[in-house]
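Sequence of ABC transporter ATP-binding protein YadG (Methylorubrum aminovorans).
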Amino acid sequence: SPIVSIANLSKVYASGLHALRDVNLDIAKGEIFALLGPNGAGKSTLINIVCGIVTPGSGQIRVGGHDILSDYRAARRMIGLVPQELTTDAFEKVWDTVSFSRGLFGLARDPAHIERVLRDLSLYDKRESRIMQLSGGMKRRVLIAKALAHEPQVLFLDEPTAGVDVELRQDMWRLVRRLREQGVTVILTTHYIEEAEEMADRVGVIRKGEIILVEDKVELMRKL
Ligand code: ADP
Ligand code: ADP
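Predicted 3D structure, token representation.
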């Protein structure tokens, strides 16, 4: 059974804007899935609904078999979300904010895991720095570390490489491949076809709130 299952999902914002129209999407465990579409297509809306940040309009979403409405905590526990914005606790130290993120899920402290995550993201040497002292790229790394602190089964990356330098982009791709080896499912949004091509196993093309195509990457690249 799919690790993420989205059925008949629609969303109309209070403004009257139809952000999503009858989205149906199943994502298999261990898959790297790219949601590809132009700005305003509904990518963030979709991710934010699955992660419980935006309320769904109608439809059903299950993560690891847990309904996100009736069983939110269990569903959310399985999810790591790397948002686009850099806003993160300016005065906190890197170590503390990442460790705290794990604690939010009621998990026991696990310094060895936090250390591994920080090392994977080249953040370990900065563990005692305050977030405000870090560059934009480093803040971005902190957001990823926070999302991985509770060992999620599904990682969502919203426009992960938008405005990111080459080194971080390459580190991100390496990280995604390593996560896949560990059986973690990765779902990312992008408006770059090259990024979908480089990173994903399967690509869903979204336009004006509708998924217009879902293809294995190889098939998609043959068509384009
Ligand atoms: P994408 O991530 O693909 O750029 P979004 O999901 O951010 O697309 O936006 C989809 C559409 O919904 C856009 O037209 C956007 O302006 C609109 N939208 C996003 N958030 C809101 C909101 N809170 N209220 C009203 N409209 C919104
Ligand atoms: P929290 O109270 O946020 O859960 P911890 O108990 O994990 O924090 O750690 C408290 C402090 O101990 C941190 O500020 C950090 O400086 C330090 N610390 C703990 N474990 C490690 C580690 N493996 N490497 C470096 N510093 C650590």
